[in-house]
Amino acid sequence: MTQRCILLSIIIHWILFMCHIEIISSTDNSRLLIISLDGFRHDYLKKHVLRTLNQIQNEGIKTKHGMEPTFVTMTMPNHVSIATGMYQEDHGIIHNRFNDTKLKKFITFNTKDIGQWTDYNVEPIWITATKQNKKSAVLYWPTSHNEFNGIRPSYYTSKYSDSVPLREKIDDAITFFRNSSFQLVMLYHL
């Protein structure tokens, strides 16, 4: 998997858009959906006919040139950078797999949190939302299953899984907007 991630070089296309779902009768209908498709170049939407993704970009917000990866161009460090707004040297995730000498533990995508997120300067967007009493669902996003300073998102997947199809992940994300008062949904797909 590491070799695959390296070969893909984390060319990630971000689709950011605000959803206004009429089904929800709330005073604030603003919703934010962030989808990360690993290996999906920003210019694929121009080169290929992708009706659903083109519709999403036309009705919402998109990046002009995709996401510019931080160095090292790997999935886990970049996704933590996206979620926190911090560079790797600040949030501490430097590779998809690494040995934490302080914890004496090998860290990977699915490593369960045992207290490594105690730096109060490291705060993903879903934790900020939670602190503001906004409901967030984080699906398969690297580190989403970990506590940050004792706080977790309203809903998160406990482990990343390649076996869950993208269609199912998107259906789950939409369900959070339709059937509940979630205001932030983030999902990652390899």
Automatic annotation (TrEMBL):
<dbReference type="InterPro" id="IPR002591">
    <property type="entry name" value="Phosphodiest/P_Trfase"/>
</dbReference>
<protein>
    <submittedName>
        <fullName>Uncharacterized protein</fullName>
    </submittedName>
</protein>
<dbReference type="InterPro" id="IPR017850">
    <property type="entry name" value="Alkaline_phosphatase_core_sf"/>
</dbReference>
<dbReference type="GO" id="GO:0016787">
    <property type="term" value="F:hydrolase activity"/>
</dbReference>
<dbReference type="Pfam" id="PF01663">
    <property type="entry name" value="Phosphodiest"/>
</dbReference>
<feature type="signal peptide">
    <location>
        <begin position="1"/>
        <end position="26"/>
    </location>
</feature>
<keyword id="KW-0732">Signal</keyword>
